[in-house]
Amino acid sequence: MTAPGRSRFLSALPWLALLIFPVVEVGAHAFTRAAVPTEHDWRVAADFVGERSSEGDLFVAAPDWADPLVRQYLGDRIDLPMAGRTGVAGYRRLWSLSPRGARPPEAAGRTPELSEDFGGVRVERFALDAPRVLHDLVEHVADARVTQIVGGKPRPCEYGMHGPGRRGGLGYGVVPPARRFQCPDRRGFVWVAPVIMEDLELQPRRCVYQHPAGGEPVRVTVPDVPVGKRLEVHAGLYYEHERMLDGAPVKLVVRFGDEQVGEMIHRDGEGWRALTIDTAKRAGERVDVSFETTSARSHKRIFCWSARILSAGGPQ
Description:
The chain folds into two domains: 89 residues, no CATH class; 178 residues, Jelly Rolls. It is α+β, with helices and mostly antiparallel strands.
């Protein structure tokens, strides 16, 4: 190519790029749209899962951002404990629905026993070897005794209908259910009830709200709990209160009767933490299980815990 020809070619490159770019963009858009599952794909996949699922099955999305879609099409099978669960204990099988063939963390190291594609949605099913849940303490909090220690003396927290709590967006925290244990503390935030709370990773957690009142404990005692091989406790703070990293640590003490069997000191930034307590030596007994929360400063310390008595197995 002669020098004048090269010069004309180079001067034309920007114009060629302007012509080629829209063609590439339209092609990429068409490719992306073709890869997005349609409403029909999701409905057919959900019908397939619904026809073959049974009690004890767990339904998850992969990746996490697809969770609203799975709830839209399988929401009638996802109850509050499943939506706010921690781990897979208590479930027999795992159903994964993915718009891009991804697999959830719960399926790590497992081989699917079933795999089907419905347009842009892949459905996989995995067998689980999770331990059996003997007793979920979150679901039995209504049977508990709740007290707030004030000046060294226990003051009962009244269980009943206390009306709806304040609602709103940022800064309002967890919405109090109308039926709850309301403690006599005048500040109003000392109450106990099962809730769904967003943790530091913005994951929903089905747990017991138990805001510490200060250096004296708020105590929840669930009576007559059957003891298994281990007690699995998870706890954390509401994400708005924890992410600022300027709150006081929260102390959670777990007791069987008068005996302390476990303790957690939760500090900002630690997220949804686990505390596993080996209870094999007392398996078969029935005990009162207490949870006590304290903190040097109670400001912005929305704290929540879940606890389950498990048959056996590792952390789930």
